[in-house]
Amino acid sequence: MGVSYSRNKCKKCNYEIIMSGSWNFYRDKNGNIKSYGPTVPVSKEARESGIYGHRSSAYCDKCDKVFDIITNEYEIPYYKHCKEKTPKVSLWVRLKAFLSDPIFYDSIYIPKIKEIEIKCPECNNKKMFFRSLEDIICPRCNEGNFKESFEHYF
Ligand SMILES: [Zn+2]
Ligand SMILES: [Zn+2]
After folding, report:
1. For the chain, domain boundaries
2. 133 CA to middle of ligand 1, Å?
3. What pTM was estimated for this model as a whole?
């Protein structure tokens, strides 16, 4: 999964809302959410934990706030999952993929994802925005529209 940045700037009052995602995360032994690193694990703990899922910032127009929320979480963390035997992909293919490109390695596996309801942690609004805000009116000046600039990394 790649990381992208979405900057939305009001054409009228210059109010700017910045969102980014997806970010890989893992949970430590107490269940706390920690950053895994965008491509490779940032620590030994991260590597040994595997990727638990992805987080992203999301904007709630009712609260006029950006939140950091979990967008999906696997039933079995990535990389842990990959160590299990899968009849479809040979060990050689897995090893080659892992050595050449961990992102490609990701794409071979489609682990099961837990059901997560995406909603605002403060007001329970289910219509969160992850990218473009071009469809809404600026909540600060109540007049302008947003113009998005979008960048993608990794
Ligand atoms: Zn505005
Ligand atoms: Zn809200």
Report:
1. 3-75+112-147
2. 12
3. 0.76
